[in-house]
Amino acid sequence: MGLFRGDAASIAFIRNLLLAFFPAVILGLAFGDQIDAMLENARVVAWALIVGGVAILIVERLAKTRDVGGVSNLSMSQSVKVGLVQCLAMIPGVSRSGATILGAMSFGVDRKTAAEFSFFLALPTLTGATALQLYKHGHQMQPGDAGLIGIGFVVSFIVAIVVVKAFMAIVTRHGFAPFAWYRIAAGIAALAWLGF
């Protein structure tokens, strides 16, 4: 609503989301087929889990963050950089939210604002990815598939609202280290199961 009133903070908020969203649009359109090919490689996922876990531990320890006061106060440069880091999530096994949160923290953004920016950025990013997949593969849909997609969307939205609040409470209190160790353990287990 603030956007329609010409509120400066609302305009900056939308600007920052769009700046962070466009790198994924460009790379997704340019390399969509190569990205799809990686989805079938379980070893890529396992290694991404391990490398991502180690990256989380490093950023948690070394990042120098400061309270920026919310998403609308991010600089244009920080927004573009977070958008570029989000593109790492095109590699299967890389968490989109993890990449954007840790990327923002490595650029000096406080943990709370980084997490909020990541979750708001999910809306255009995941909507765009869904639209692209429907455009590319919509002809393969069967009768009733649209209803199932709609149910999945509603359930995911409700679960996300509940989970985001719990996630924010855990991250604020304990940081990302528990999630990092979980990723490392899951990646090692996957590689062992795959026979390295």
Written overview of the protein:
- The protein has 196 residues and is mainly alpha-helical.
- It contains 8 helices and no strands.
- The chain has helices at residues 2-5, 8-38, 42-62, 76-86, 96-106, 111-137, 145-174, 177-194.
- The longest helix has 31 residues, at 8-38.
- The mean pLDDT is 88.
Features:
single chain; 196 residues; mainly alpha; globular
List the helices and strands and how they pair.
Blueprint (H helix, E strand, L loop, with lengths): L1 H4 L2 H31 L3 H21 L13 H11 L9 H11 L4 H27 L7 H30 L2 H18 L2
- Major beta sheet summary: none
Quantity of strands, as a count:
0
Summed up, the domain count is 1
Mean pLDDT: 88
SSE order, one letter for each helix or strand: HHHHHHHH
Which percent range describes the beta-strand content? under 5%
Q: What is the share of helical residues?
A: over 70%
- Uncertain segments: none
By secondary-structure content and strand pairing, the structural class works out as: mainly alpha
Task: Report how far apart the termini are.
Answer: 52 Å
Shape estimate: globular
Rounded to an integer, what's the Rg over CA atoms?
Answer: 18 Å
Treating each run of at least 4 consecutive H or I residues as one helix, how many helices?
8
Summarize the structure.
The protein is an all-alpha fold and 196 residues long.
